[in-house]
Here is the input.
Amino acid sequence: MTDTNTGGGLTDGLDELARELDREHVFHSWSAQANPSTLVIASGRGSRVWDHAGHEYLDFSSQLVNVNIGHQHPSVVQAIREQAELLTTIAPSTVNLARGEAAKRIVGHAPSGFRKVFFTNGGADANENAIRMARLHTGRDKVLSTYRSYHGNTGAAIVSTGDWRRIPNEFARGHVHFFGPYLYRSEFWATTPEQESERALQHLRRVIEAEGPSSIAAVLLETIPGTAGILMPPPGYLAGVRELCDRHGILLILDEVMAGFGRTGRWFAFDGSGVRPDLITFAKGVNSGYVPVGGVIISDPIAATFDDRVFPGGLTYSGHPLAMASIVAALDAMESEGIVENARDIGATVIGPALAELAERHAAIGEVRGEGVFWAIELVADPATREPLPAAAMGRLKSALVERGLLPFVQDNRIHVVPPCVVTADEVADAMAIYDDVLRTALEGEG
Here is the structure.
């Protein structure tokens, strides 16, 4: 942890005040409330953040894998400030220039045949509304999604989610889950990416047949499952899903909430795959979370369904002017500054090779995978059996990384290496040295 404290006791006091107020009054998500975090973040810039006392951290979590453009990008901050001085809020039923400009920029990066955007407050309600559109457009009910997935914490989105968070929240109807591809822990006894793709598609084919194709409105997929492990789709998988959907009149919704807007080194993770979805959901990287926002990019045939038919959905803050201004500024800066290209290049030439070297030095690393600034280190207790590293050891690793000045994204038995798209080669080198040291010291006696 870098200490840049120049303020003495006054700033230290602000950190303690923040902790006291948090303990007394803040109820945290996905947490047991008796053991709150004590980490204070007061400000940041680029790939670094610091507390009030000036203790500095490399942010290799991008918070929740959303600060793609980095912290406090001056153009985005300025755009929010200027919009706030002009108009802070307006009803979604009105016409607003910032909203139109934001939508224009978003569809400019989508495939042809997408001209409309429905704005939401975040990724969960983006998926919620995409599901609603699919059901209304097709007249069908069921939505298929994978067990290894996360789609958000609203009614249908959390039930579409496959991980444990779905189970205490299963109050929505019409959801079916299936296994997607994950060669390192294959459900299909596959030994090659091609086998994994073929067998995973056969499994999905049988699920569709067993559920009744005419009852299925949509298949909802994260293009690259993020929280579930940054699971890169094997060759032909996405195209195979598209073909199955086309065969049965099923819509394909691609969830690009985490993977979109530069994270993979492409504007959308599906770019270059040859696959065209019917609905695209987004949030996070579209404005790096500076103001809450998400949305659904709607293909023309689905948008036309609601030309003369009311779409029964909406949010008070849909297309909020401050969020719209932040989108315009963020996407313009990403284009003019080559930020997406930086993510692509640094992933291919710096992060990927560095993680491969790290895996050679540490037997606890079972696999590294990813692209752009979207990588996972999968940790195992036994390389032969691939038994996941236990939670206690992962907890020690997480604490040790923070102590050494790196904010990690830790999920199950994995460390996700997900810095902002603006990360530099020197910052990657600093992070890799910390990972290396922590894996060497914090896991002594493991196995």
Observations:
- The two ends are 28 Å apart (CA to CA).
